[in-house]
Amino acid sequence: MDKLKRVLSGRDAEEPSGLAEVIDATSLGWGTRMKGFVACFAIGCLCSILGSCLLWIPKKGLVLFAVFYTLGNIASIGSTMFLMGPVKQLKRMFEPTRLIATIVMLLCLILTLCSAFWWRKAGLALLFCILQFFAMAW
Questions:
Q1: pLDDT, tens digit, for every residue of 71-89?
Q2: Stated pTM of the model
């Protein structure tokens, strides 16, 4: 019966490969996608707001802001992957019209975390946060 279903649905009459079984098993329903989107987007907004609140802490505030702002951006980008899927999201991010903005944004995400943790330069972390914002808006 399974072979008949595969033939009628347009799939090959052969047994599906292991990769096809994994893809079928991991595909999410629309309700689950919406829940994942809302959860990741809420976490991203919460991290960004928390980072803004932590900005005013003396000495460590700027570094905490940079880290939480960056984590918020990563969570927000991850939230859209629930809606369209990771492969389609990456294809759209790396289209020729968005390629420069995507590279700048990813580079600024990495450099913000590097400047906060390894280089310990708060001003540089703030500069990369500003560049993140402009790259995301672009």
A1: 999 999 999 888 888 888 8
A2: 0.72
Contacts of 120 (CB under 8 A, 6+ apart): 63
Q: Give the Å distances, CA to CA, from 124 to 33, 100, 105, 110, 130.
A: 36, 21, 15, 12, 10
Query: Is the confidence at residue 10, as pLDDT, over 70?
Result: no
Report DSSP state, residue 57. S
d(CA 33, CA 55) in angstroms, rounded, equals 33
Q: Confirm if 125 and 63 have CB atoms less than 8 A apart.
A: yes
Residue 45 confidence (pLDDT): 93
Rounded to whole angstroms, what are the CA distances from 13 to 20, 25, 49? 14, 19, 53
Q: How many CB atoms lie within 10 A of CB 42?
A: 13
Q: Which two tokens stand for residue 16?
A: 């599906």
3-state secondary structure labels for all residues of 4-25 = HHHHHCCCCCCCCCHHHHHHHH
- Residue 12 predicted with pLDDT over 80: no
